[in-house]
Design brief:
1% of the residues are buried. This protein has 125 residues and is mostly helical. It is built from 4 helices and no strands. α3 runs antiparallel to α4.
Amino acid sequence: MRPKTADHDKLDEGVRIRLTQLEKRILLKRCKEEGYRTMSDFCRAKLVKKREIRKIEVSKDFVRITKKLDYQLNKIGVNLNQVSKNINAQQVHQFGPSDREVFLKILQELRNCFSVLQNYMDVIE
């Protein structure tokens, strides 16, 4: 169930303005271009809030590399789920040195993936 909205966060007050048809079309176009879901969100952002949604343009190489990373991270997650399912399915499992090596390799791969993603995030910001 969704948590109850606090009284100070409720959007229960309205403001009415009059626009020409052209002005309204321009306003709707800007809402869509800037990524706002509704005209109300757009108006609140422009009139009251300081923070705005920024549209980020990225190269095709960035999209390709990001999709590849996402795919690889998903594969790692699937493998981890299979390992944990296998471990939990057995009554008792003692980890040996070879298990520890595998877990350390997985941890290092996850750190590498995180590092690459962090570098991309730094470029975006």
